[in-house]
Every structure is written in structure tokens, then in C-alpha cells.
Amino acid sequence: MESLRGHFEEELNQEGEVLIAGQTFLRTNILRELAPEAYEITFNGWLDERKEQLLEKADSILANYDNHQRFEQLAIAYRGGGMAPFVGAGMSFTSGFPLWTRFLLELCDESHVQIPDLEQLLEEGKYEDAAQLLHDDLGPALFNENVQAAFARERNPSGPLVYLPKLFPKASILTTNFDGLIEQVFEESDDDDQGIDRVVSGHNLDEVLRQMAGGTRVLVKLHGDCRQGSRPSPTEN
């Protein structure tokens, strides 16, 4: 809920700053400091309005292509605890990490690989081949050094990622991402019962399946971790 306050305040401040005695003040600052109760009432009203808007949008989407039936099946699987979210690069992008395509194109400048050759592979959706091309040219040490430099930086989680502990408090998670944002949002969760029991590499799928079958909450990093070396085969999600 707190993560939505930023959106609320951004919308409220779009109405313009308030001029008082030649000084300008943000509307949210005035409301929060001078009338905290009114601030909370306004925020809660904004939440209700936002909820209604999102429900109307969801109904519109579900009305297309027989999505209602698919959604009902998805809801049954969710309630039964039979879902494991798959997290791709788009979930980390809002927190300031680059998408894989951009990272590869920037890394291309440090290699002998020709940009048109790399772009052709990316346009064809061959992200693994594109990464392997750069990996082979740069060598594993330099390639992994660049991965670590790009994805091991500290970031404040934002966007849909922050809802994972609430939506999937006990589920295992699969990700193609190298960064540590998923671990961070679970560690910072207010609920002590939420969390990841183990972080494992996707290099050993037999061990991954054994852990999941035993009820362990596992974060499966399919392509490794930026802090421990990675193999060059993520997909763009």
C-alpha cells in the first residue's frame, strides 16, 4: 500500500505548486504537514477510485478473446498454491536496471563484434546467440565483469516487483534476471513468514526440482547471479 503513495502524490502535485508569500510549496507537503487526517482521507479516496478504474480496465481486457475462462483457471491455480511466477527483465527495469537488449548493445562497443551482426540476432529474437557471440569474443572473465558492473548496483525496488511478497508469499520464483532485487523485496517484507528459503542456480535443474518438490521456497536464477558469475543466456522478457 505504501508503494502507491508515490503515485498518489505525483498525481496530486500535477495540479501545480501553491504560492504562499512568494514561496512555492508542493500540495502534498502542505496537506501532509498541516492536515494529516485530511491527507489520509484523500489518499484512501484515491485508492478506492484507482481500484475501481483498474477493475473496469480488467473487465475490458477479460471481455476479449474469451479471457474470462482463462482467468478463472488462473485464479483456481493461484488459490490452490499451484503457481510460480516467472520474472523477467521488465520487472527490474522500473528500478533502474537495463533491459538485456540495451546491455548487449552497449557491451558491443567493447568487443570486436560488428553492431549489425548483433542487431540482426536481436531482431530475430536470438538473445542467447547474441550474448554467446559477445561472451566468446570478450572471454568469460570480461563478460562477467560487465554483467556484475551493470546488475550488481544497489537500487530501490519499485514497480510491480514490490508486490511479489504479497501476491506470492510462499511460492517458488523463477527468474532470468541477474540482479538481487527479488531477494531484497522479500527480505524487506513486513511479514516475517514471507521469504525465500534458498537461492539456487538454474544450472542444476535436478536439484531445483528436488528442492521445490520438498516444499522449499526457492528462487531459481536460471542464468546465474551477477555476483557469482553468469552464463550468457538470458531471454528478453
Largest sheet: 4 strands, parallel
DSSP strand count: 8
Q: Rg to the nearest angstrom? A: 22 Å
Distance between the termini: 26 Å
The gross shape turns out to be: globular
Percentage of residues in helical conformation = 40-55%
Total count of domains: 2
The number of helices is 12
Strand content: 5-15%
Classification by helices and strands: alpha/beta
Unreliable runs, pLDDT <50, ≥5 residues? none
Mean pLDDT level? 85
Helix/strand order, N-terminal first: HEEHHHEHHHHHHEHEHEEE
Give the strand order, joined by hyphens, for the main sheet: 3-4-6-5
Would you mind describing this structure in some detail?
There is one protein chain. The chain is α/β, with parallel strands linked by helices and about 240 residues long. The protein folds into two domains: about 1-75, no CATH class; about 85-235, no CATH class. About 50% of the residues lie in helices and about 10% in strands. The chain contains twelve helices and eight strands. It has helices spanning about 5-15, 25-35, 35-60, 65-80, 90-95, 100-110, 115-125, 125-140, 140-150, 165, 180-185, 205-215, and strands spanning about 20, 25, 85, 175, 200, 220, 225, 230. The chain has a four-stranded parallel beta sheet with strand order 3-4-6-5, with helices on one face. A two-stranded antiparallel ribbon has the order 1-2. Helix 2 crosses helix 3, helix 6 runs antiparallel to helix 7 and helix 7 runs antiparallel to helix 8 (about 125-140). It is globular, with a radius of gyration of 22 Å. The relative contact order is 0.11.
